[in-house]
Design a protein that fits this description.
Elements: H1 3-23, H2 30-54, H3 60-84, H4 88-113, H5 124-142, H6 151-182
Helix pairs in contact: 1-2, 1-3, 2-3, 2-5, 3-4, 3-5, 4-6, 5-6
Length: 185
């Protein structure tokens, strides 16, 4: 159990606190606290990978757990945001993002079972998607404009950008896996 793995577990452990803070009336400071919690979790996402590579502490368990923690945190944040702001504007990109994560997770598992997991390795598009997604969620959680900076509008734009990158990266993964998926056994 190295520090990068502990940081990943911390990210998972943050989720219940994130949910509690979302629903507790905290005298109008919920959005500040929610945003801070999410930013802390996002920082641990970057930091655990950085430390694992720098200290040469990468492990199969860490490689498994890190994307699970990311998907749990993003999925919970999107579900909470949709519950707070019901309607298609937020529900559509949230459904695209969550649906893609389920699809690609299943694809990676299947490709690993047939011994071709390297065909569906993480791409640079996925990194951009994750960055846009995390920033979008930060702005959507914060809600209030910062001076003239329209956080909600920027959050929506980034979330739709993330959903577009999500679909693009899913297409790339499926295209790479297509020969294996359609091969007759």
């Amino acid at each position: 159990m190295n520090l990068p793995t502990k940081l990943t577990f911390l990210r998972i452990g943050i989720i219940p606190f994130f949910i509690v803070v979302f629903y507790l009336p905290l005298f109008g400071i919920n959005h500040y606290l929610l945003t801070a919690i999410y930013i802390l979790a996002a920082i641990t996402d970057w930091f655990d990978g950085y430390l694992a590579r720098k200290w040469e502490q990468e492990s199969d368990f860490g490689a498994f757990l890190d994307p699970v923690a990311d998907k749990l945190l993003v999925g919970v944040a999107l579900i909470l945001l949709v519950s707070k702001h019901p309607g298609f504007l937020l529900a559509i990109p949230a459904a695209v993002i969550i649906g893609r994560e389920i699809t690609i997770s299943a694809l990676r598992e299947w490709m690993a079972n047939v011994g071709e997991q390297t065909k569906v390795a993480v791409s640079i598009i996925g990194k951009f998607k994750t960055a846009a997604q995390m920033l979008a969620i930060v702005f959507l959680l914060f809600e209030e404009p910062i001076g003239r900076f329209p956080t909600m509008l920027i959050g929506y734009l980034l979330l739709y950008t993330s959903a577009g990158l999500t679909l693009w990266s899913m297409f790339l993964y499926l295209r790479a896996a297509w020969p294996s998926l359609t091969r007759e056994t």
